[in-house]
Write a structure and sequence with these properties.
Helices cover about 20% and strands about 35% of the residues. By secondary structure, it is an alpha+beta fold. A 7-stranded mixed beta sheet has the order 20-23-26-25-24-22-21, covered by helices on one side. The chain starts with 18 loop residues before the first helix and ends with a strand. The relative contact order is 0.12.
Length: about 450
């Protein structure tokens, strides 16, 4: 399972790389210029699904080449790392062009996307990219040793202009506009009650946060039940829990977490890798709710459709709600609609939405104090309640209106200021006669801003 790497005469980097190396990749990601490798670098390891030994050599490539996989064994040939060449295989991202196939490319592509590598030829001897420890760290460290160098051609980023939301059952992913030249990601992991993995939320900004230290080391994972089912199906017999992250009721088996929230960080690894299949950097905010490889790749395809990005028209799997129309049945509410978009709504009684807080909001007075103004706490509660009302109106008893009856045990954890995006969550709780309880939360960039329980009164329509 160990990696064997080489990159000129560069010294071996410690896990996570050096502080100076991390700074260099932050600089390269923020640069408007395309980047390639300053040297070639090789790795060797075993595939997760095929158990085959594979050698990977990453070489510099000219501007505009993109990331291209080249099979050096049989069947030989090239496959660009683009979503149009995705092969539909379960639990990993694979590419196929004719007879040429490369499996489990997501961790390598994540390292490229996370560090800002635009152009490289990736020579592969074998059918599958090595899994190593299940993280993208071996690839990220190899790129660091090879060094990133700028090229004389500018990048052409995909800028999200209108919201796009894709949904599949209880999984959803959205691309949202931002007011800056940033690529922000937020992932909400929630396997529900009874799972050995608790609810986790993590955010990350490429080019500002430290991919090499904070995201790349997070390993792929499975629960003990999932691992046993795969073993019974004949998979992964060349591995043990000590090699991979298998999570039982009491935590990792024969292993230990690298981060307390390592599972959700690995979901960001996968999301970055799958979105690298656009072949271009993305500028926008990506919000994933229990999303996996398939939905990630669908969003990559949607981002490449200029008509879809321009109009914001969702795919067939998307959920679109006329929020303003729905809220006409929420009586006595604050006059302004405080939910900009519903990202997900489940018949079982759970919803996720967003509120973009801008300086033009009617509740900001434009005071002359030097401090940034804050969104009134009562309106943060109102935004959560509006999402709860939308959830009840869509999934609850038909033919009724709702009103906010009370908001109890609500805690405000941080200020909400212009430029923040509130990610709102609502989950229906106990119902009693003419009222229903709704558990609500609001967060900004993964940090909890408010939480509590509101009670909605059910009224004859």
């Amino acid at each position: 399972m160990g990696a064997r790497t080489s990159a000129g005469a560069e010294p071996e980097a410690q896990p996570g790389g050096s502080a100076g190396a991390a700074l260099s990749t932050l600089t390269s990601w923020r640069s408007p210029r395309q980047h390639t490798l300053g040297d070639e670098v090789s790795l060797e390891g075993v595939g997760l699904f095929t158990a085959r030994q594979t050698t990977v050599t990453m070489r510099p490539a000219g501007a505009g080449t993109g990331l291209v996989f080249r099979r050096m064994d049989e069947p030989s040939g090239e496959v660009p790392a683009l979503v149009e060449f995705v092969e539909d295989l379960p639990r990993r991202t694979a590419l196929r062009r004719g007879e040429v196939e490369i499996q489990t490319v997501e961790h390598l592509l994540s390292a490229c996307g996370g560090l800002g590598l635009d152009n490289a030829v990736i020579e592969v001897r074998g059918p599958e990219i090595p899994i190593f420890d299940g993280s993208s760290l071996p690839f990220a460290e190899a790129i660091e040793r090879a060094r990133l160098v700028p090229q004389e051609v500018d990048r052409e980023p995909i800028v999200v202009r209108e919201p796009i939301t894709l949904q599949d059952g209880d999984k959803a992913i959205s691309a949202l506009p931002v007011d800056s030249d940033r690529f922000e990601l937020l992932y909400m992991l929630d396997y529900g009650e009874g799972s050995p993995i608790g609810r986790q939320v993590q955010s990350f900004v490429l080019g500002e946060d430290d991919y090499l230290h904070d995201i790349a080391p997070a390993r792929t994972f499975s629960t003990k039940r999932e691992a046993q089912a795969a073993w019974d199906a004949g998979l992964f017999h060349h591995l043990s829990p000590a090699d991979m992250l298998v999570i039982g009721e009491d935590g990792p088996i024969d292993n230990a977490y690298r981060f307390a929230d390592e599972p959700v960080r690995h979901k960001l690894v996968d999301m970055i890798g799958d979105l690298a299949l656009t072949g271009r950097p993305v500028r926008g905010r990506i919000v994933g709710v229990r999303t996996g490889h398939e939905l990630n790749r669908q969003l990559a395809a949607a981002l490449l459709d200029p008509a879809l990005v321009r109009s914001g028209v969702p795919s067939d799997a998307a959920t679109a709600l006329d929020i303003r129309s729905e809220l006409t049945r929420y009586t006595g509410r604050f006059p302004a609609v405080l939910v900009d978009r519903v990202l997900e709504i489940e018949p079982a009684g759970r919803a996720v939405g967003v509120k973009n807080v801008t300086s033009s909001e009617p509740f900001f007075t434009g005071g002359a104090s030097g401090d940034r103004e804050r969104m009134p706490g009562v309106l943060v509660v109102e935004a959560m309640a509006q999402l709860g009302a939308l959830l009840q109106l869509r999934t609850g008893r038909p033919g009724v209106s709702v009103a906010l009856r009370s908001a109890k045990h609500v805690t405000l954890h941080r200020a909400v200021v212009p430029g923040d995006q509130l990610v709102l969550e609502a989950e229906l709780g106990p119902a009693g006669g003419v009222s229903v309880a709704v558990d609500v939360r609001a967060s900004v960039s993964g940090e909890l801003a408010a939480e509590g329980r509101v009670h909605l009164e059910l009224l004859p329509r």
